[in-house]
Amino acid sequence: MLSVVQFTSRPGILDLGWGHPSADALPGEAWAAAVAQTMAEHGPQALAYGFAPGPAPLREWLADHLATTDTLPVDPEQIFVTAGASHALDLVTSLLTGPGDVVLTGSPTYHLAPPILTRQGAEVLPLPGDDDGIDPAAARRTIDSMRRAGRRIALLYLVPVFANPTGRSLPADRRAALIGLARRGGFPIVEDDTYRELWFGDPAPPSLWSESAGSGVIRIGSFAKTVAPGLRLGFVTADRDLVDRLAGLGFIVSGGGINHFAAMTLAVFGTSGRYADHVARLRHHYADRRDTLTTALRRARPELLVPDPAGGWFVWLPLPTGVTATRLIAVAERHGVSFVPGTQFHPGSPGAGSGAGDDRIRLAFSMLTDRELVEAAGRLAAALERA
Prior knowledge:
GO terms for molecular function: 2-aminoadipate transaminase activity; DNA binding; pyridoxal phosphate binding. It holds the Pfam family Aminotran_1_2. This protein has helices at about 30-40, 55-70, 85-95, 115, 135-150, 170-185, 210, 240-245, 250-255, 260-270, 275-300, 325-335, 370-385, and strands at about 15, 80, 100-105, 125, 130, 135, 155-160, 190, 215-220, 235, 315-320, 335-340, 340, 360-365. A hairpin with a 2-residue loop joins strand 5 (about 130) and strand 6 (about 135). The strands form four sheets. A seven-stranded mixed β-sheet has the order 2-10-9-8-7-3-4, with helices on both faces. Strands 11-14-13 form a three-stranded antiparallel β-sheet. The mean pLDDT is about 95. It is α/β, with parallel strands linked by helices.
């Protein structure tokens, strides 16, 4: 079946499973103005093959911008422009992993990362943890076990700020401990920093990139959440050697920089102040959507332990004792609501009945309207009565 967009709604289903922006969160008019300004200021250069690591205007603006959202300055030459965070992860793993390697992750972790991390033949190994993320002591034991077995650890993939799916940020002591473990183990951390700017109260903590002084950490980011996913723009910050290696990949050498026109327009969107204005609006927008969903859940089922994520797009909801996500999903869809079962976020989990994540569900508050979120919460509450 042909379609225009990735998500297609199902009749009668309010879908809390998709981490997509709502139409009213997209900067249509502001982006159109930036497109016109880009053509007026840059003309044919904006329509040419782009410079391999990304156009100078975007890398320069992004370096300045990242200095306002984090604690470590970035040199523009440490930035490589990508087609989003997933593309960034794919490029980095294509250079750093190979058959038989081990890639470490948290558990839970972003459920669509493992297929990318294993594309070169590596094996994903989830590290033990709890609601605060990876347990460094348990991670140390796992890493030591891998080394004794002669396994090569290629990297550790983390979403340390407003994580998908939990919405939580890794505590400072664990952040420092994991940086130390990676250094001692001789492998880099790949930090997925996608949700950094979507905070609802206090700003996000410093990135692992900053806390490590840019040593041993490769940061990836995206503009899918803060501008629009259709732009297909993201970035890597890394040492210049890795940036040069990325720029030397065959399809980059042949085709030039990624999404050059969109990248040039994003530079204008940023330097004109439109980006800052838009993200400030998004923080209020998504905080309101979070509040709508969590309030509706508490009213419908007061016994639920509903968390209040401090940023991002997701509520990681614990289920009542005796209710499993894999059983609830079928009941919920009969009631007209859907979500992602927690089992999907545990790499290697065999799914139904495994216990890994079966006591949680991920609810996205980013896409539905306030009215739809209230209705979805009511439908979910009714499904819980039947599960």
